[in-house]
TrEMBL record:
<dbReference type="InterPro" id="IPR036704">
    <property type="entry name" value="RraA/RraA-like_sf"/>
</dbReference>
<dbReference type="InterPro" id="IPR014165">
    <property type="entry name" value="LigK_PcmE"/>
</dbReference>
<dbReference type="Pfam" id="PF03737">
    <property type="entry name" value="RraA-like"/>
</dbReference>
<comment type="subunit">
    <text>Homotrimer.</text>
</comment>
<comment type="function">
    <text>Catalyzes the aldol cleavage of 4-hydroxy-4-methyl-2-oxoglutarate (HMG) into 2 molecules of pyruvate. Also contains a secondary oxaloacetate (OAA) decarboxylase activity due to the common pyruvate enolate transition state formed following C-C bond cleavage in the retro-aldol and decarboxylation reactions.</text>
</comment>
<comment type="similarity">
    <text>Belongs to the class II aldolase/RraA-like family.</text>
</comment>
<protein>
    <recommendedName>
        <fullName>Putative 4-hydroxy-4-methyl-2-oxoglutarate aldolase</fullName>
        <ecNumber>4.1.1.112</ecNumber>
        <ecNumber>4.1.3.17</ecNumber>
    </recommendedName>
</protein>
<dbReference type="InterPro" id="IPR005493">
    <property type="entry name" value="RraA/RraA-like"/>
</dbReference>
Length: 230
C-alpha cells in the first residue's frame, strides 16, 4: 500500500496543441493573468535568474526533496522538445538545486527552461547559454543525490498548483500557469484583451484621459469626489 506520492515517474503525460502554445507565447504574463480572470500567478518571489529571461511551454513537473536534485536527472529523460521543467519541493529550500551542467543536459533534450521554488547557481553560465530560469533564490550551496521525489505528478510551486502538461509562461513580470485544457481559449482571450488595450493605447496617445475612456466621471461624482479651485 502506497502511503504517499514519492518515488513515482509518470512517463505518458498529455500536452496541449503546440500551435496553441505558440499563440500563447506571444503574450506577456500580465495579459494572460488578466485574460484568465486574474488567476494563475505564482508568488512574486519567483524571479528571473538573469535579465531578459522568458519562457513558455508545457510543464514536466518535478517534486524535489530539500537539498537533493536527484529527480532532475530522472526528469531529463521525460523531457520532449518544447517542454519546461517546473519544480517544487516537499518543504522550503533555497539550496542551489540546478546549474550549468543540468541546463546542458536539458538543452540537449529540447527543454526551454526552468521554473523552481528553490535555488539555482551558475547564473552567468545560464545567461551565456540563454537557458531561461525563474527561481526562488540564487545560491551557490550544492545538493546531493540521495532521496526519492517524483516526476510528472501535480506539484505546488510558489502557492500555485501545476499539473503535468499545463503551460507555464514566465517573463520579467512573473510566472503564470495555464491549465492544459484551457490553453487555446486563454490564447484567444489574451488576443482579445491585447486588441482592446491597443485601442485604448491609441486614445491615450491622442491625449484622451482615462477618466473619459473608462467612464469614471459619473461613479466618482456618486462616490463624493469634489473638485475645489482653491
Amino acid at each position: 500500500m502506497r502511503l504517499n506520492n514519492l518515488g513515482i515517474v509518470r512517463t505518458n503525460i498529455e500536452r496541449p496543441d503546440p500551435t496553441d502554445v505558440e499563440r500563447l507565447s506571444q503574450f506577456g504574463v500580465a495579459t494572460i493573468h488578466e485574460a484568465m480572470g486574474r488567476v494563475g500567478l505564482l508568488r512574486p518571489y519567483i524571479r528571473p535568474a538573469y535579465t531578459g529571461a522568458k519562457l513558455c511551454g508545457p510543464a514536466v513537473t518535478v517534486l524535489l526533496q530539500p537539498g537533493d536534485n536527484w529527480m532532475f536527472h530522472v526528469a531529463a529523460e521525460q523531457v520532449q522538445e518544447g517542454d519546461v521543467i517546473v519544480a517544487g519541493c516537499t518543504t522550503e529550500s533555497e539550496d542551489g538545486f540546478f546549474g550549468e551542467l543540468l541546463a546542458t543536459s536539458l538543452t540537449a533534450r529540447g527543454c526551454k527552461g526552468l521554473v523552481i521554488d528553490g535555488g539555482v547557481r551558475d547564473v552567468a553560465d545560464l545567461e551565456k547559454m540563454d537557458f531561461p530560469v525563474f527561481s526562488r533564490a540564487v545560491n551557490a550551496k550544492g545538493t546531493v543525490k540521495a532521496t526519492l521525489g517524483s516526476v510528472n505528478i501535480p506539484v505546488v510551486v510558489a502557492n500555485a498548483v501545476v499539473n503535468p502538461g499545463d503551460v507555464v509562461v514566465a517573463d520579467v513580470d512573473g510566472v503564470v500557469v495555464v491549465p492544459r485544457e484551457l490553453v487555446g481559449a486563454v490564447a484567444d482571450a489574451s488576443q482579445k484583451r491585447e486588441d482592446n488595450e491597443e485601442a485604448k493605447r491609441a486614445k491615450f496617445r491622442e491625449g484622451v484621459l482615462g477618466l473619459d475612456i473608462y467612464g469614471m466621471r459619473e461613479p466618482l461624482a456618486k462616490a463624493g469626489l469634489e473638485y475645489v479651485e482653491n
